[in-house]
Prior knowledge:
alpha+beta, 2 domains, 3-stranded antiparallel β-sheet, elongated
Amino acid sequence: xxxxxxxxxxxxxxxxxxxxxxxxxxxxxxxxxxxxxxxxxxxxxxxxxxxxxxxxxxxxxxxxxxxxxxxxxxxxxxxxxxxxxxxxxxxxxxxxxxxxxxxxxxxxxxxxxxxxxxxxxxxxxxxxxxxxxxxxxxxxxxxxxxxxxxxxxxxx
Length: 156
C-alpha cells in the first residue's frame, strides 16, 4: 500500500512539474516514480515515528511563506531607510525539536528568511546571525526568530 501511495504521489508531482500530457512524458514520469517509490519503500521501512501529514505540510508552507514575506519587507525597509536600526549579532536559540530532519528544516527555514542565517547547529542549539538583535536571551530570541516555525514543525 505504501508503495502504491508513493508511486501515485510522485507521479502527480511529476505531472504538476512538467505540465505535459505527452505519452513520452507520462511514461517517463511513471517509470521514474515507480523506481523512486520502490527504492524508498525498500530502504525506509514503515515506522510509527514518521507519518506523512499533508495538511501539516500545507500549514508549515503557509507559516514559512508568511515569515518570508514579512522578513523581506523588514529588510527592504532597512535598505531604503538608513535611519532604521541595524544591530547585527549572533544569538543562540534552543529548539525543542527532537528529530534531526525537523531541526534541519528549522535551520533552513531560518536561513531562507532574509535577515537571519543559521551558522551552526550543536545538539539542541542553533547559532543564528541576526540583522537586528533585539535580545540576547536564548528563550526570547528563539521565540522571535523560530517560534512559529517550531510550533508548526512539531506537527509534521
